[in-house]
Amino acid sequence: MPELPEVETIRKDLEKEIVGLTILDFKTEWPKKVFPSEKEVKRRIIGATIKSIERRAKLLIFHLSNNYKIIFHLKISGQLLIRCKGNPSDKYTHHVFGLSKGKQLRFADLRKFGYIKVISETEKDKELEKFGPEPLSQELNPQKFYEIIKNRKKPIKLVLMDQGIIAGVGNIYANESLFLAHIHPERKANNLSEEKAVTLYKKIEQVLKEGLEFRGASDNNYVDAYGEKGRYQEHFRVYGKRDKPCPKCGTTLKYNKVGGRGTVFCPKCQK
DNA sequence: CACATTGTTACCAG
DNA sequence: ACTGGTAACAATGT
Q1: Per-10-residue mean pLDDT for chain A, 271 residues long?
Q2: Is A88 (CB) below 7 Å from strand B?
Q3: Per CA to C1' distance, which residue is closest to C5?
Q4: Residue A148 CA to nucleotide B10 C1', Å?
Q5: Are residues A123 and A176 in the same domain?
Q6: SS3 sequence, chain A?
Q7: How many domains does chain A fold into?
Q8: Residue A160, domain extent
Q9: Residue A136 belongs to a domain
Q10: A105 and A159 housed in the same domain
């Protein structure tokens, strides 16, 4: 569930709190999601200092002082929490990084779908190469967006959520941006005029920025690195509002599966 | 207790 | 080689 704004919020928290600290220890109760192995991860990271923290799509990447990097994927329910040693335990914590200055980084994950991977900076990693351009960066603007989507034949919502086409957009921000752009989620991407595509891209930027402003959407169990919920869910227009009135025209919002994923839209406003 | 959940990949067909 | 469509998968609270 954490999408671009949620992961970026966590990234900023972590940057503020733990860049410059040294990793003293690593413990896991769920080695199945630690790659290449618990033992090798320990060998690679203990003693190294966290130099910088980057986000790519929905991934977080810690760059270490020793030419290794740690990649985190939170998937549906992962949380990264900054705590002090001895703080009360956090439910569903499966991995703990002991840090200098008495700090801890705890990876909690109810569903256990999230993972940790440590690789060398020079190692080519398929996972990091597959992503499309980042919205809110120089890599994308309305015209480039149009070029990227204009030949895609699948539903626009699936194009938005395809990490290989555009990085970081998930179900919440796809639903919300399509609503604001008045585009039906199942419209084929190649069916959108340049004008419509430009509008859509601007709406994507808008909802991502709103998400950042409210420190993410805690519709489910998302929390920032301090364990605090975001507030963007209070501003959803359609996401999770199946059978409620459209905020624009009052028509009952419809729910469909698009590509097997829950999708809410206004049948009147979104064509 | 079967189900919903969701980002991602595996697999297949075209 | 690439695209699109669908199933499968991770695990568990409800």
Answers
A1: 90 95 94 89 96 92 94 90 92 93 94 89 79 90 92 90 89 91 92 94 94 88 91 89 90 85 89 89
A2: no
A3: A259
A4: 25
A5: no
A6: CCCHHHHHHHHHHHHHHHCCCEEEEEEECCHHHEECCHHHHHHHHCCCEEEEEEEECCEEEEEECCCEEEEEECCCCEEEEEEECCCCCCCCEEEEEEEHHHEEEEEEECCCCCEEEEEECCCCCHHHHCCCCCCCCCCCCHHHHHHHHCCCCCEHHHHHHCCCCCCCCCHHHHHHHHHHCCCCCCCEHHHCCHHHHHHHHHHHHHHHHHHHHCCCCCCCCCCCCCCCCCCHHHHCCCCCCCCCECCCCCCECEEEEECCEEEEECCCCCC
A7: 2
A8: 142-265
A9: no
A10: no
Domain end residue (candidates: A95, A128, A161)? A128
CA of A165 to C1' of B12 (A): 22
Strand B: list positions under 7 Å from protein Cβ: 5-9
| A134 within a domain of the structure (yes/no) | no
For residues A9 and A32, state if they share a domain. Answer: yes
Domain membership flag for residue A271: no
Catalytic positions of A are 2-3, 58, 261
